[in-house]
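dumping the sequnces here before i forget
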Amino acid sequence: PHFMIELPEKEDALCFNINDRPGTIFSLVTDPQSGILVNGQIIGDKKIPPDGKMNTYFWRFGIVHQTLGVRLEVNTRDISVFQDSKWVKLLWSDSASLKGLNVDLLVTKERSLMVTLKDSVKFVVLLHKVWEKHPYHRDYLGFYTLDSHLLSPAVHGLLGQFYHGIEYEVSELRPGEVPEKPDATMFVKGQQLNVTRGWQRDFRRDMKNGENVPCWFVHNNGTGLIDGDATDYVVSGLF
Amino acid sequence: TNEATVEVHSVTVDCTVTSRFARTVMTSVALNKANTSQEIFFEVELPKTAFITNFSMEIEGRVYVGDVKEKEKAKKQYEKAVSSGRTAGLVKASGRKMEKFSVSVNIAAKSNVTFILTHEELLQRKLGHYEILTRVKPKTRVQKFQIVVNIYEPQGILFVDAHATFLSNDLLPLVEKTVTDKKAHVSFSPTMEQQRKCPDCDGTLIDGDFIIKYDVNRAKSFGDIQIVNGYFVHFFAPPDLRRVPKNVVFVIDISGSMYGTKMTQTREAMLQIVKDLHEDDHFALIKFGSAIYTWRDSLSKATQENITEAINYVKDIDSEGMTNINDAVLRGVAMLIKDRKEKKLPERSVDIIILLTDGMPNVGESNTAKIQENVLSATGGKMSLFSLGFGNDVDYSFLDVLSKQNKGIARRIYEASDATLQLQGFYDEVASPLLLEVDLRYPDNAVEMLTTNHFSQLFNGSEIVVAGRLTDNDLDNFMVDVMGQGLEEDYKAQGQASPVKWTDIYPDEEYIFGDFTERLWAYLTIQQLLEKSKSGPADEKENATAKALDMALKYSFVTPLTSMVVTKPETEDGTDSPLIADKLTEEQRQQAERRGYHYMSASPPMYTPTYHSSPTYFVDGD
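..and the predicted 3d for all of it:
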């Protein structure tokens, strides 16, 4: 999956990929103070494509708001919500909206789920449907944080660590391997990293093609940009 | 305007300058020729240093006048109107020097409308002249188009130069200029035909800046004092003073965001600045990213040899790291203190730090308030810090306070092809100090409500202005003392000021001078109070804000503390819609530019990203 940190104040964006063995669960957001947790499990292609490059994507997210007593499991098949001591199941095949005391859900048929957790966070999960008989690829999910300003300074995780901004500066732009993707040096978190100018796609407005967002790509699973390394974010369960 | 149905009868700009205080009245008369009512727009630009003082619209015999109110009160009225979707602010930033005032009203069929906007400002002497800037964009040819500027300077006028960005060879002779000893008259009034852009088209040539530059005869010794109607103003900028040597430390940001054009322009500007250093000056170069690098450990005299070596150092400056402003400035301060202590610097000389940065501190101390505290504590208020904020990523108010707390000023450097010249221009303004610690004193029992009368420096090409109110209206004269530190000895001058007999100087035009001096005093007082309201102890800030507000209301100036509320005529559905004219602060201008600004100059334009208003963090499939 590709991670994107868009910084409108700087009119810039940072991006990195994280890949691991299919089945691995990563911590995306964890805020011990508000009791919020978002974990995601990756899945691989059905078999290795001819280019020999095995893709991984998120196919399942577990979302918990301990203080509000809310749990959600979103996967490529359905959406399960636990609140007020009961589980409710929603299907991607229906448009639905659910307004609760602590959580609002809005499902747009076969497309997206918008989740608003009271006084804490708002996000969207996108469903990418792939032709069922595609020889290699499968359905997968995207996770977009829309509003995170109410989370505490302690928020962390592969996405959460960036919710309160990141200071970096880029210099020494130089030709890269591909002419349209120059390399540069990024100074971030006390380190110098070699980064490459590239694009990643934002699918919120155009589910099919996505919109290219130019970004500074950090190589090696985001090493240097993320705190620690990617394996530090591997967790054992979805909740 | 819609050319087919709106006829612009006249556009006139009438500017009167009396002892540097300029009052400009912009008037426009238009006719709705259509058989139905329609919206007519009035859009003018005024210098950002000016305060709007009056605005009126005359529609169908009724005059609607703007009312200056406390900003908060006006805002309440405004918010009420906004919530019902009926209003918008009238003033927006426009370029580096101007702001745009625009209003539109619905005019009945076959009806006239007259718009009149008045603004006032005290012209500042920079690099040896005053500048009156008028921006005209009438959009269509106008039956009566006229710019008239009358300058009254009792000190005597040295020169007047008038030019415009749109002047062709044909239009040039239309600029009439008459200069007598103490009065200048400049006018420009092309006919409809002369305004025509080309023989077969209807466009207008008139589009751009009309600029008048002038200077006055400099009075020797204590300067020039003018007393009118119980107020006095003192202009001090004596000629023939020798410059005081300076010890200047250039603290240059080389962080990653300076990469590319900004770094190239900084290098070019620094090469010229270093070459232009006076041989009596001492200088040092400090560059900073995350780390701090000094060219040498102490300041060097600007000998030819040292300058050559410095030029080689400047040529190699390249970007790296993040932004450590705190440690870089403190290093400069420490260098000056150490060299002073070791008597490496001339006793009579001025210590200056020039900080150039394009970003917010993000390494070392990044709390801006703490940096301000650290720098003030280190300098002990004994040296001047001038800050240059390059581009829109730096918080101008941070640099502004940082400089003002340390006897300096901040200036924005706009990212553009002329940034090199902007940098050099700023340096030229502060490159030649003539006097230090200038004190202007007046008899305590004769004056009150004085504006600032102590100045850390007087720079070549600038001018010190002090104004105040006389306690005795019938005063025949009063004594003035001026003291300062010059190159070799202390500067002392004393003089006696008498009320100006305007009838003798301008026998036919005394009426012009009625309240100019009082308004000049009020303008200067408000400006200085607004400055005080930004830095200094909390109670002083509060006090200064309250006083500035009182005066702005009393003299009807649209300042950052006040707003002008303009009530438009009722529409057919019976609603009226208040409009608000605000004075923008430099921070608001910067924010506006930041919103409209597209990506960093360091990378090719093909990478301009989609602009989103709030941050987004996401993960998705490739």
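Confidence is low (pLDDT under 50) at residues 597-612 of chain B.
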